[in-house]
Amino acid sequence: RSQVAGVMHACGHDGHTATLLSVAKVLSEHRSHWSGEIRLLFQPAEEVSPGGAQAMIRDGVLEGVDWIYGVHLWTPISTGIIATRQGPMMAAVDDFRLTIAGKGGHGGMPHLCTDAVLIGASLVQQLQSIVSRNVSPLQPAVLSIGSIQAGTTQNVIAERAELKGTLRSFDPDVRQLLRQRFERIVELTCAMHEAEYDLEFRVGYPALVNDNSEAERVFRIAAEVVGQDCVGEAEMMMPAEDFAYYVKQIPGCFVLVGAGNEDYARYPHHHPKFDFDESAMLLAGQMLIGLAMDALVEKK
């Protein structure tokens, strides 16, 4: 349970930590059965950019490391299924906060005002044209506005409006295009309404691209853990993950371990009722140990 009442990330990282602690226990108890070095990364702060991976890398966590593997307990997949894919798997992400400054006034005299709600509502629609009309339909891209806050009551024209959202993509050129078009549309729309604005743009994680050979290793070890019929190919997806920084440095692979069931673990990640099937933690641990042992054999 969260130590802060009413607040949680709702993504399963408590399960990841418990799984890795169990892996550490098993490896330690059987230390005489294997030789070499295995590093377990208890990385903090994946939830919010800039995340924790870059700091870990700067501190030297990858020095002398040949391969890296990460797992995520994943409720959209049923417990007992393990999935990954070769190449691009999770999107690059950038976040924004846009504050529109208009001129407030009486709701019955809008001609004397600059309505920040009207401008914000217009931008919610106009910005969606970037993906539908500027990005190639063959390229994955998402622009989502998750929050719009403005006004205080029914008969007052709002002076300010704040929009928060996210841009997601895989291709670096598409990522740049999204930002360029976003900034241009905001600039011209606000100018058209004679409003001021402040745009904070936070560049987030790069796309997560698995190494092809390491993905093949994952498929092979997963078949040993759950059987070939329960190994799947993950779809490319628009959530982001700062594990991407690790696989930009060394070969590695990110793995989805199914943790969903219809009884109680049927809600998506970040949902207020999110939960996961704790039996999936055992499979995640078996995968990490199996991958490490297989890699050590190859290194010999």
Topology overview:
Blueprint: H1 13-29, H2 53-58, E1 68-78, E2 82-84, E3 87-90, E4 92-101, E5 105-106, H3 116-134, E6 141-150, E7 156-157, E8 160-169, H4 172-192, E9 196-203, E10 208-210, H5 212-226, E11 231-233, H6 244-249, E12 252-260, H7 280-299
Parallel strand pairs: 1-12, 2-11
Antiparallel strand pairs: 2-12, 3-10, 4-8, 4-9, 5-7, 6-8
Helix pairs in contact: 1-7, 3-4, 5-7
Written account of the structure:
The chain has 300 residues and is α+β, with helices and mostly antiparallel strands. The protein has a domain at 92-203: Alpha-Beta Plaits (2-Layer Sandwich), CATH 3.30.70.360. It has 7 helices and 12 strands. It has helices at residues 13-29, 53-58, 116-134, 172-192, 212-226, 244-249, 280-299; strands spanning 68-78, 82-84, 87-90, 92-101, 105-106, 141-150, 156-157, 160-169, 196-203, 208-210, 231-233, 252-260. The model has no long low-confidence stretch (mean pLDDT 96).
Low-confidence stretches: none
Average pLDDT taken over every residue:
96
The CATH topology of the domain at 92-203 is given as Alpha-Beta Plaits
With strands numbered from the N-terminus, the spatial order across the biggest sheet is: 1-12-2-11
Over the alpha carbons, how many angstroms does the gyration radius reach? 23 Å
Number of helices: 7
Question: What is the makeup of the main sheet?
Answer: 4 strands, mixed
Q: What's the β-strand tally? A: 12
Distance between the termini: 43 Å
